[in-house]
Amino acid sequence: MTASAAATENSIALEQDAFVAAVSDQLGVFLSEKGALLASISADTLVLVDSIKTLVTGGKRMRALLCYWGWRGAGGAPDAAEVVMAGAALELFQGAALIHDDIIDRSDTRRGGPSVHRAFATLHAERRWALDEERFGHAAAILTGDLCLSFSEEMFASIGAEAGSRARAVFNLMRAEVMAGQYLDILEEVSGPSKPHNTAVSRASAIIRYKSAKYSSEHPLVLGGALAGGSAKLLAGYSEFALPLGEAFQLRDDVLGVFGDPAQTGKPAGDDLREGKRTVLVGLTIDAANDADRKFVDSHLGRQDLTAEQIGRLCAIMVDSQALAGTEAMISVLSATAFAALAELPLAADVSAALSALGHAAVSRAS
Amino acid sequence: MTASAAATENSIALEQDAFVAAVSDQLGVFLSEKGALLASISADTLVLVDSIKTLVTGGKRMRALLCYWGWRGAGGAPDAAEVVMAGAALELFQGAALIHDDIIDRSDTRRGGPSVHRAFATLHAERRWALDEERFGHAAAILTGDLCLSFSEEMFASIGAEAGSRARAVFNLMRAEVMAGQYLDILEEVSGPSKPHNTAVSRASAIIRYKSAKYSSEHPLVLGGALAGGSAKLLAGYSEFALPLGEAFQLRDDVLGVFGDPAQTGKPAGDDLREGKRTVLVGLTIDAANDADRKFVDSHLGRQDLTAEQIGRLCAIMVDSQALAGTEAMISVLSATAFAALAELPLAADVSAALSALGHAAVSRAS
Questions:
Q1: Contact A293/A314 with Cβ under 8 angstroms?
Q2: Pfam families under this entry (chains A, B) (predicted)?
Q3: Which of B269, B276, B310 is nearest to B293 (CA)?
Q4: Does domain A164-359 bear CATH number 1.10.600.10?
Q5: Regions in chain A scoring below 70 on pLDDT
Q6: What pLDDT is recorded for position A79?
Q7: What is the homologous superfamily of the domain B3-364 according to CATH?
Q8: Are A150 and B183 in contact (CB < 8 Å)?
Q9: What would the pLDDT profile of A291-331 be if each residue is shown by its tens digit?
Q10: Which residue of B32, B143, B203 is the best one to mutate when testing the A interface, meaning the one whose CB has the most A CBs within 10 A?
């Protein structure tokens, strides 16, 4: 690395740290105010805000950072309040999505700790309350997610983006698309086995586009650009970079969900297989596997009672069918497409370097 | 009725009908646009918007109408677009709340038809999809509710109320309060039996204030007034009318939930008792009943397997303990307080008459 590249990297890191700290402060102040509001209703409801606080304290802030560099790339100032609020709104939206996702996927852990519904079920058990602890956990988590979704929107509305503005349109589109994508995801879990196996990959690709790539990558970057008044051409260029990047990111997530180290991912081994996620990795597997192996995959994916041996066989089929290698190849192609598009964008060197670093971290991470 | 009173009643009915039709049109156009968006993702996701459409087509539009007369009472014009959008946003919010409520309460019916999670479970069964139909139903309904909540906010944002405006503050407060109130509701179901029975009524009163009265009555009326630029004094007067009215409305709902005619309410007999709702009616019962009856109530409320005989005994205890009579007395007192406050409001005769009619319908209804 040259001295000038090192200096750029250092200044990017400082700028990112300042932004991330500002987003955390914004979330902290906002959630404290909401805690005071809920306390005025009943101290018993404070646990809702505390759950949200715990959840949004963690995380990599990837969406907020993409929004930030989208903003900076379109000429936004480094220390502007709007982009901090937008970043906080994205983090709250992600929090809401995770709370409800974990109910849907029956995930008991999140970022190494208990998921929200699990934490409420534990509270129920500890207090020896009446009726069913699981049901209470789910109900409380549905409400916590709803509250977090409202908070996200309230935070976004506080920016004051006009009703017909591009930024508002992106925010609206993001929410509708991710919910539609999540529905396609659960639909594929139940209807996938009865559909042709040679279209499984294209179905899985559509799911990750809407459930993940647009929501986690494209829309945050474009939102930042739109808030700063970026041109339609610039925002289209953002999409050309961020959409394939987001797809590669989700493919990496799917690989880690099966082959990742539980100590690093914070999720138990085989969790994605028990959830029955019909990912591109699974699609490639059932498309390429022999009949016996395909039948084994179809009849075991989504079973809560999978044994370590069954998980081992599922992993072996994914490797032997070249599905894992195929997924890694797709990650490479999508990454190359994304970074080629990034190189074409008319961005200042520091913005370009920051987006490049974020992108590389997203597709080659281990957790 | 005098000729002039009849003329007023007729003109109110015409004006209300025009507003309700405008809200329905607004919802129809909006949901058609959202249907087109979802269809562009995948035709499979259209069912999400269709579920919302079915749900928001029914209902009494009580919240939208309160918003409307709040707007008119503060000088808003009869045919303004803002209040139509606000009414549509409130109806969408109510739709989202109902979808998630029905999951939480395990209610299989809504307005005489299947609830959303039940409809998705039936779809799963009809298509003979894999894995569990109940789980799919819940997951799909969580996502549909989230989508509907986002739609509500998108509709409200399209009004263009400024970030720091009173109307936006009311909309934000409404959402946080109702979610906190719903949490207190499910918390009381599980923790109520272990708390002192002589405070059950005051706990149940706090729940209906936040879960229902503020959300269904006070906030819609104040929202309409705030959008039209009503004075702080007028809006405070609105609260003095609408808060006790909303409490009386919910007490009526609780009575109907136990003693109502299933043919008229559209809910099976005993549904509220199986759900284990710890209403004011229940609070009065366990406070006044003898030890044996109280024990029977505490050990049977919330059981999914209640027999007709057990439901009959629960109802008998509510009557014999004078809890039903006490609830009716509370409805009378709250109604009188509300209508006395209404009489003090500086409103035109038609607005006052419209709010009076809405109020009387809310507290003396049979469905």
A1: no
A2: polyprenyl_synt
A3: B310
A4: yes
A5: 1
A6: 84
A7: Farnesyl Diphosphate Synthase (1.10.600.10)
A8: no
A9: 999 999 999 998 989 999 999 999 999 999 999 999 999 99
A10: B143
Q: Which residue of chain A comes nearest to B48, CA vs CA? A: A180
Nearest to A189 among B131, B159, B182 (CB): B131
Domain range A1-160, CATH class: mainly alpha
Q: Which residue of A has its CA nearest to B154?
A: A172
Residues A329 and A218: beta-carbon distance below 8 Å: no
Is A150 in Cβ contact with B175 (below 8 Å)? yes
C-alpha distance from residue A305 to each of A72, A138, A270 (Å)? 48, 21, 11
* Interface predicted TM-score of the whole assembly (ipTM), two decimals: 0.95
pLDDT at B235: 98
φ and ψ at residue B109, rounded to 5 degrees: -125, 155
Compute the distance between CA of residue B366 and CA of residue B344 in angstroms, rounded to an integer. Answer: 28
Strands A109-110 and A113-114: antiparallel
For residue A367, what pLDDT is reported? 73
Q: Is the four-CA dihedral A252, A258, A263, A266 of positive or negative sign?
A: positive
Is residue B130 within 8 A of residue A302, CB to CB? The reply is yes
Instruction: Name residues whose C-beta falls within 8 Å of residue B311's C-beta, 6 or more positions apart in sequence.
Output: B269, B270, B273
Spans in chain B with pLDDT lower than 70 = 1
Residue B279 φ then ψ, to 5°? -80, 175
Residue of chain A nearest B209, judged by CA positions: A41
User: Which residues touch A290 (CB under 8 Å, ≥6 apart)?
Assistant: none
**Which of A33, A165, A190 is the best mutation test for B, with the most CBs of B within 10 A?**
A190
Q: Give residue A107's pLDDT.
A: 87
- pLDDT for the residue A262: 85
Q: A89: which residues sit within 8 A by CB, 6+ positions away? A: A152, A153, A155, A156, A159, A171
Residue ranges per structural domain of chain A: 1-160, 164-359
How many residues comprise chain B?
A: 367
Burial class (CB in 10 A: 0-12, 13-18, 19+), A206: middle
* Count of CB pairs separated by less than 8 Å, A with B: 179
pLDDT tens profile B274-312: 888 899 999 999 999 999 999 999 999 989 899 999 999
Instruction: Indicate yes or no: CB of B194 within 8 angstroms of CB of A100.
Output: no
Task: Determine which helix (DSSP H) or strand (DSSP E) holds A110, and give its type and residue range.
Answer: strand A109-110
Beta strands in B95-205 (DSSP E): 109-110, 113-114
C-beta of residue A176 within 8 angstroms of C-beta of residue B150? yes
Of A248, A239, A238, A245, nearest in space to A351 by CA? A238
For residue A277, what pLDDT is reported?
87
- Measured at the alpha carbon of residue B103, what is the angle toward residues A300 and B116, in degrees to the nearest 5? 85
Q: Which of A128, A149, A160 sits opposite B149 (nearest CB)?
A: A149
Return all residues near B176 (Cβ < 8 A) that are at least 6 apart.
A34, A37, A38, A147, A150, A151
Would residue A112 be called left, alpha or beta, if left means φ above 0 and alpha means ψ between -120 and 50 degrees? Answer: left
CA–CA dist A275, A271 (Å, integer):
6
> HSE (CB half, 13 Å, CA atoms) of A14?
7
> Could you say which DSSP state residue A259 is in?
H
